[in-house]
Amino acid sequence: EVQLVESGGGLVQAGGSLRLSCAISGLTFEDTAIAWFRQAPGKEREGVSCISRSDGSTSYAESVKGRFTISSDNDKNTVFLQMNSLKPEDTAVYYCAVDSAYFGLEPWGYDFWGQGTQVSVSA
């Protein structure tokens, strides 16, 4: 059974930084894409960034380009999201997700999800 556990969320002032981690267990396939999504109250879940475990390709939402960086430690089955220059509009629950056949930022493309970690950015 694939399990994903997010950590690293918290409360930070605007302009600050946080580093989210997603620990993954139970993977039985090598070629996977791992993504970060976020969902703010009353809004749809949106893709933030994704990374391919096989070749390291990455993709970012326009709203976070230049501020967020996704990385993967394949030996430890952990994916990170470094978030810098945080803004109040980045406030949301952040989820990681994994899939073997899809690389992108659409929620429907991912089969396995974590429970989420709250990120709150104060003005």
Instruction: Please provide the count of β strands.
Output: 11
Described by strand count, sense and barrel closure, the largest sheet is: 7 strands, mixed
- The CA-CA distance between the termini, in Å, is 40 Å
Mean pLDDT: 94
**Structural class by secondary-structure content:** mainly beta
Low-pLDDT stretches are: none
Beta-strand content bin:
over 45%
Radius of gyration: 13 Å
- Overall outline: globular
Which bin fits the share of residues in helices?
Answer: under 10%
- Helix tally? 0
From N to C, what is the helix and strand string?
A: EEEEEEEEEEE
Can you put this structure into words, describing what you see?
There is one protein chain. By secondary structure, the protein is mainly β. It has strands at residues 3-7, 10-13, 18-25, 33-39, 46-52, 58-60, 68-73, 78-83, 92-99, 112-113, 117-122. Helices cover 0% and strands 50% of the residues. Strands 2, 4, 5, 6, 9, 10 and 11 form a seven-stranded mixed sheet that branches. A four-stranded antiparallel sheet has the order 1-3-8-7, with no helix packed on it.
